[in-house]
Every structure is written in structure tokens, then in C-alpha cells.
Amino acid sequence: QLQLVESGGGLVQPGGSLRLSCAVSGFPLDDYVIGWFRQAPGKEREGVSCISSRRGSTINYANSVKGRFTISRDNGKNTVYLQMNSLKPDDTAVYYCARGERLFSGCFLSRIRYGYWGQGTQVTVSS
Q: Looking at residue 74, what is its pLDDT?
């Protein structure tokens, strides 16, 4: 059964850090592009970061998170991580991971390229 399950969200003060996890099952993780997206209340879902399949070494970030967020993959644990540092109130959103193209050497932060999604985890940045 194909699944993506996010965890690690919570309430954090501005300037703090969180590490989100996306545990996958039902498919070989390193065969696929994996992306992180977020959706704040009243806003469209936007791409945050993505990592290519084993065919490439591409990582992309949204301009709003460059230098603060880091995506990584642990194939042995079937998990993709999103390390979030220097968090700001504007980072408050539900964060989703999603599965993209198979055996693709690049990655894009466009929702249309992702066919399977997790249920999301809430991140709230507030003092």
C-alpha cells in the first residue's frame, strides 16, 4: 500500500527549529522525486523543497526558505527529512510531502508534478 506519512510538526518560537519527517511505504524511495509543500490558511499550496530520484542529485528550494531549510533523504529508513531553522511566523502552515516523477534526474516545485500526497503536519511559529 502506497503511503507517505508526515510527522514532526508542532509549535515553535520564532528563530527556533523543527525537523519534519516523511516516512514512505509501498514503493522504493530513491526511485522517486519527493517534494515538500505547505499551505497556510487562505493561501494556495506552495512548493518548499524537492529532491530528485537516484538518477540525479538535484535539490531545489523556494526562495523564501533558502539558507534556512535543508532537505535530505535516508533510503535505508525510507524517509525524507526537512530540517527547518530560523523559523519565522510566515512559515506557519500545514506541511505536506508528496511523490513526484519516477527515475527523474531533476525536481520541480510544481504541484501538478506530484501524484501522491501525505496527510500533512501542522507547523506553527509563534511567540
A: 95
Half-sphere exposure of 59 (CA within 13 A, CB side): 11
Report the Cα 84 to chain-centroid distance in Å. Answer: 10
How many other C-beta atoms are found inside a 10 Å radius of the C-beta of residue 110? 12
Beta strands at 69-74 and 79-84: parallel, antiparallel or unpaired: antiparallel
SS3 track for 66-91: CCCEEEEEEHHHCEEEEEECCCCHHH
Determine the 3-state secondary structure of 97 from DSSP: strand
29, 35, 42, 99 from 22: Cα distances, Å: 11, 10, 24, 10
- Do residues 80 and 15 make contact, with C-beta atoms less than 8 angstroms apart? no
Residue 71: what pLDDT? 98
What backbone phi and psi angles, to 5 degrees, belong to 55?
Answer: -75, -10
Contact 125, 89 (CB under 8 A): yes
Q: What does the pLDDT look like over 33-92, one tens digit per residue? A: 999 999 999 999 999 999 999 988 899 999 999 999 999 999 999 999 999 999 999 999
Q: Find residue 36's DSSP bridge partners.
A: 49, 97
